[in-house]
């Protein structure tokens, strides 16, 4: 019985170009992914109907299964923008970074990662990270050099910097979810709503449960008196807006500035 | 060093074969095997495997119980070896893709050292299967560059598209916006007041806080992203009341473009020659001379902006 063909999709040049370009960018926002898909159809098969994005990606993922990789969809932690990245399913280390950074640079990343996960806000200050420079494996690194390496991490979308503090880019959260859960099982925080890994979010001051900002937005949507889903205490934080890509918002900037001290990720 | 994956009982898309080391380098087609029962997408568990394999053994009526157990164990070992081979092929594919990003040829010894390990006798088969995946899934052809030194490169089989980034509209429009700002800054003597930047953008129909279908929120893009990525510098102008801020080129802009290039861009916009602005043209020429002198030490860090 051809059981496997049910699962395995067909690759055409449309899908191949899509994959290549997605790989080049590392991570893309949904609006860019849709544009990318349209572009690939235009180049290779301009008369075809563009498949719904979800189906298109599921089709590709069924082929990628045997390679232990998949196109994973996530959501930025600060404003709920959907993002996509090609992630490794099988390995549980930071192997994708391993080929681009030296041993001491990878160790710097690991140190920053640990500080971020241990922190309460999900951010680690530049100072605290740089103070660990003496403990790095591999070739000795000076603080000035480390500053430069941290910028490399920002440019390649593994970290985000905001006001001298660093947190994980959505890409890193997508790619390293398994690694983080396995390496820091005690320190890891989880969202009460979606149960996935949480780096930034809001927490209940009474019982301590945490929620992602976009999860808060969805859960308390049009609820004028939000209460903690766990202990029912009044939810003290400002509830952000649900991300809506269609709406052109005049005051969108000022409101989103107010609700989140941390900048968006993309 | 890529880690070996812990588990992954995924359907094996080809027939079980003898691991006797005889290889003709034939590429494996990605078709489902009719002999293998599809295994569930679950965690690999030895008991389950053994159970399934025992069933296979039990269907052989001529075997003694001892013989059936031996057969079961042998089949199990073969399945495990198969899975391990699949994982190694998958890792090699990823390794080759990552290495190719840096445009450096990959040597056989690197592949053996980082991925293949003690399966190195199966190298011809592993690389053949990896090549097939690269071709079918990604559209890359794995080519051996040098027969003697066993180095390989990936060649893109998809036709190249001119100005693909612009056509995509991903980073393209945003970097186009950046160019406009860099142009304004340069033409105003290497710094431009924030108010001037917004005035120019307003003429293009771009308002700071209004969501734009190409740029997102322009104010965030410019004030945060471009500044964070070091394309722009943003600072308070001293002794201004009410306080004003100004933009200047960030260090990354100096690396990824040049005064001459930006002047050329501005000139094209106005349908004129760069020489039309003698002051800026002279400055750009001097900048080019400086760059030529710096020459070897100016590294092409622009490649990192592809990430």
From TrEMBL, chain B:
The protein's UniProt keywords, in alphabetical order, are: Tumor antigen, Ubl conjugation pathway
GO terms (BP aspect): negative regulation of double-strand break repair via homologous recombination; negative regulation of transcription by RNA polymerase II; protein ubiquitination; ubiquitin-dependent protein catabolic process
Keyword flag Lipid metabolism? no
Q: Where is this region: Disordered?
A: 1-67
Could you give one GO CC term from the UniProt record? nucleus
Superkingdom as given in the UniProt entry = Eukaryota
* Name recorded for this polypeptide: Uncharacterized protein
- The species this protein belongs to is Ovis aries (Sheep)
């Amino acid at each position: 019985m051809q059981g496997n063909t049910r699962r395995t999709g067909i690759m055409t040049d449309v899908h191949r170009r899509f994959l290549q370009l997605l790989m080049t960018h590392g991570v893309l926002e949904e609006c860019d992914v849709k544009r990318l898909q349209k572009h690939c159809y235009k180049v290779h098969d301009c008369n075809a109907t563009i498949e719904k994005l979800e189906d298109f990606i599921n089709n590709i993922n069924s082929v990628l299964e045997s390679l232990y990789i998949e196109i994973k969809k996530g959501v930025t932690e600060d404003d709920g923008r959907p993002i996509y990245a090609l992630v490794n399913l099988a390995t549980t280390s930071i192997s994708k970074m391993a080929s681009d950074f030296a041993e001491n640079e990878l160790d710097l990343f690991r140190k920053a990662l640990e500080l971020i996960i241990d922190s309460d806000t999900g951010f680690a200050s530049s100072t605290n990270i740089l103070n660990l420079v003496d403990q790095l494996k591999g070739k000795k690194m000076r603080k000035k050099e480390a500053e430069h390496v941290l910028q490399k991490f920002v440019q390649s979308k593994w970290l985000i910097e905001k006001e001298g503090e660093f947190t994980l880019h959505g890409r890193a959260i997508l790619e390293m979810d398994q690694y983080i859960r396995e390496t820091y099982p005690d320190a890891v925080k989880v969202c009460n709503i979606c149960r996935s890994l949480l780096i930034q979010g809001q927490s209940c001051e009474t019982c301590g449960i945490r929620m992602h900002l976009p999860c808060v937005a969805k859960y308390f949507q049009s609820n004028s008196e939000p209460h903690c889903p766990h202990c029912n205490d009044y939810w003290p934080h400002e509830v952000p807006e649900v991300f809506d890509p269609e709406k052109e918002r005049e005051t969108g900037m000022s409101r989103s500035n107010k609700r989140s001290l941390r900048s968006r990720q993309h | 060093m890529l880690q070996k994956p812990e588990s992954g009982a995924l359907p094996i898309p080809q027939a079980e074969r003898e691991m006797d080391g005889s290889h003709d380098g034939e590429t494996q087609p990605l078709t489902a095997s009719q002999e293998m029962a599809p295994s569930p997408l679950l965690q690999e568990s030895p008991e389950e495997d053994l159970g399934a394999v025992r069933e296979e053994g039990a269907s052989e009526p001529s075997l003694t119980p001892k013989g059936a157990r031996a057969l079961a164990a042998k089949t199990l070992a073969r399945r495990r070896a198969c899975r391990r081979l699949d994982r190694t092929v998958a890792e090699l594919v990823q390794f080759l893709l990552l290495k190719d990003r840096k445009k450096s040829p990959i040597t056989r010894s690197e592949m053996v050292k980082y991925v293949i390990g003690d399966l190195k006798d199966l190298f011809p088969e592993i690389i053949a299967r990896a090549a097939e995946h690269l071709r079918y899934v990604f559209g890359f052809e794995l080519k051996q560059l040098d027969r003697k030194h066993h180095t390989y490169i990936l060649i893109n089989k998809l036709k190249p598209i001119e100005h693909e980034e612009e056509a995509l509209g991903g980073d393209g429009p945003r970097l186009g916006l950046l160019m406009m700002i860099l142009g304004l800054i340069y033409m105003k003597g290497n710094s431009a007041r924030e108010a001037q930047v917004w005035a120019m953008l307003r003429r293009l129909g771009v308002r700071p806080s209004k969501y734009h279908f190409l740029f997102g929120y322009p104010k965030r893009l410019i004030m945060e992203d471009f500044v964070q990525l070091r394309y722009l510098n943003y600072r308070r102008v001293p002794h201004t009341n009410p306080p004003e801020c100004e933009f200047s080129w960030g260090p990354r802009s100096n690396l990824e473009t040049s005064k001459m290039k930006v002047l050329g861009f501005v000139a094209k916009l106005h349908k004129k020659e760069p020489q039309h602005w003698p002051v800026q043209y002279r400055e750009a020429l001097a900048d080019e001379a400086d760059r030529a002198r710096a020459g070897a030490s100016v590294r092409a860090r622009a490649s990192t902006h592809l990430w």
